[in-house]
Each structure stands twice: as C-alpha cells, then as structure tokens.
Amino acid sequence: MIVNTRIRLSYGNIADLASLKRSRRGYHLLSVNPKDNSIVQAFTYGAVAIGQRKTVSITLDSFEHIVCTPEQLFFTQEGEPIQAKDIKPGMNLLSACMSIAVTVVDIETGREAEVFALPIFEGENFVLCSGGLATKTE
Fold first, then answer.
1. pLDDT per residue over 75-93, tens digit each?
2. What is the Cα–Cα distance from 110 to 67, expressed in whole angstroms?
3. Model's pTM, two decimal places?
C-alpha cells in the first residue's frame, strides 16, 4: 500500500497510512472476513515502510483515487481476486460490504512512491480502504 492510502478505523475515523505510525497501543481497523463477507475488527501495531516501488493509480466513479503497488489485491464484482495491474477502466470492484460494486473510471501506471506494509496481528488480512474497497494487506 502507499502512504496516502486511507484506511477505515473501527471507531469510524479514516486515517492515512502515514499517520498509522508504529505504536505499542496499536490500531483497530475495519476488516472483511472472507468466509462470510462480514465486516469485522482487525488489529495492527501500525504501518511499516518497505521502500520505493512503482505504483498504479486507480480512479473510482466516486472520484476517489487509490495509489497502490501493481500487485495489490482487490476483488471483482464476482468476488474473484484481481491484482491492481490487471484492473481495466469499466470494471466493477467489490466495496466494503462485499455486495455493492464501484466502477473503475481510469487507471495509470509508472509513478514511484513510498510503499508501506500494514501487518495485521488479529483478524483477517483484508482492510477497508478508499472508496470503501476491500483490499488484502501486504
């Protein structure tokens, strides 16, 4: 994930990855349980910088932008995992509740940016990000 990726926290706020600094207290996030598609709580001690990487910028029909690595996993409307590099304009991706789709308007590749991992210690490795999309953490 990229520094400006917005993550939904379990108490209702949204935070950029950059603001989720390592903390002994940690953070409770909203996650998706892939077994029954329910929204659950997950726990992390914060984001970890893993260096500069090439990125993909995805623009949704809600005008939100997601910048991520080409390998970042999202889910098609049919529930199939898809890497960001394989997403095309006009595709529908599943939103947070795993029942509503958002449409990809545009996708660009090539820019380099600081990339962060978000290790999940309790809960599933799926977090809710910008546009309400469910994505797998690295």
1. 787 778 888 899 888 888 8
2. 11
3. 0.70
